[in-house]
Amino acid sequence: MINYWIQEDNQFVKISREELSQIESDRRLWIDARRVSQDEITFLQTEYKLDPELLLDVMDQDELSRIENWDDYVLSIMRLPVFTPNAEVSYSTAPVGAVIFPDKIITICWTDCEVLKDLSANRIKGLSLSDFPAFLIRILARSDIMFLRYLKEIIRRVTSIQNELHEQIENAELIQLLNLEKSLTYFTTSLKANQLLLEKIRRTRILKLDSDDQEWLDDVEIDNRQAMEMADTYSSITTGVMDAFANVISNNMNVTMKKLTVISLVLMIMSFITSFWGMNIRLPWSTSNSWAGFFCITGLCIISGAVAYIFMNLRPVKKVKKNKKRKK
C-alpha cells in the first residue's frame, strides 16, 4: 500500500495519487510504502527510477542498516522494531528503506511497524518535511523509544513466565521463553547495526546536518546505546533463567531415574527369589494340601524387598569435626 503525505500547519495530510499534479512544485512530499506488493514495487521502480538491487535489499528481511549516496538520491536502510501479536516470535525487527530525493522522501517496508504509524498519525512533535536529514534522524529517535518500550514489555513477560514455571514446568512456557530470547537477539543485532548507521552518518557527511541535527544525532546515539545495554542485560537474564530451569529439569529427571532404579533393584531381588524356587525345587513346608510354602516365599520376598529399599535409601551420615581451641 502506497500513501502520499504533505504537511500543512506541521500536520501530515494524506492526498491521493491524482492530487499529486495539483500540489505546488516546491512542496515537499513523503511517499509511504508499507506492506508493498510486487506490482507496487514495480511501480516505484518505474515511476521514480529506483535501482532494482536497491529494492531487493530493502525487501530482504535480514538486510542490515546502512547509508549510501547514489546519483539522484540517498539511500538509507534502518532496522525498526516490529510487534506482531499472533506470530510465534512476537517481537522482531524489519528493514525500512528511506530514499531521499531533493523534493521528496520515500520510505519502503515489506511489513508495518509502530514507528511509521506514529509518523503518519502525527504523534511525533516537531517533525518537518522541510529538513529530510532531521526527518530521518527523528525516525531513528522514535525507533529507539519503541525499542526501549518493547524491551520493558519483554522483561515483564519473562518475569511472568518465570513465576508460572515456579509452580509447574510446562513445555509451552519454555517455548515462550525461547521465543523471547530470540526477540532479544534480533533487537541486539538491529541496535548494533543502527549504531553503525549513526556513526556513518556523522563520519561520512552524506547527509548535510546543521547544528540542531547534530544535537539530535548525539541524543539518538545515547538512546541507542542505552537500548543496546538494556537488550544485552535482558538477554543475559533470559539466558540465565533458561539455564536455571534446564538444570531443574535435569535434576528432576535424575531424581526420577534414581527412584526407578531403586524400584527395579527391589523387584530384581524379589524376582531372583521367586525364580530360584520356581526351578523344580520343592517349596519349604509345603504339602499337597498346604499353602504354607507359598506364604513363606511371599513373606520372604516382601521382607527382602523392604530391607533392600530401606538400605538403598539410607543417606550417609556426615561427620563434622569441630576444631577445639587449645587453651594456653
TrEMBL record:
A GO cellular-component term linked to this record: membrane
Top-level taxon: Bacteria
InterPro entries: CorA-like, CorA_cytoplasmic_dom, CorA_TM1_TM2, MgTranspt_CorA/ZnTranspt_ZntB
Transmembrane segments: 260-279, 291-312
Entries under Pfam families matching the protein: CorA (PF01544)
Compartments it resides in: Membrane
Topology versus the membrane: Multi-pass membrane protein
Any GO molecular function: metal ion transmembrane transporter activity
Keyword Iron: no
Keywords assigned by UniProt, alphabetized: Membrane, Transmembrane, Transmembrane helix
Similarity remark: Belongs to the CorA metal ion transporter (MIT) (TC 1.A.35) family.
Name by which UniProt lists this protein: Magnesium transporter
Record organism: Treponema ruminis
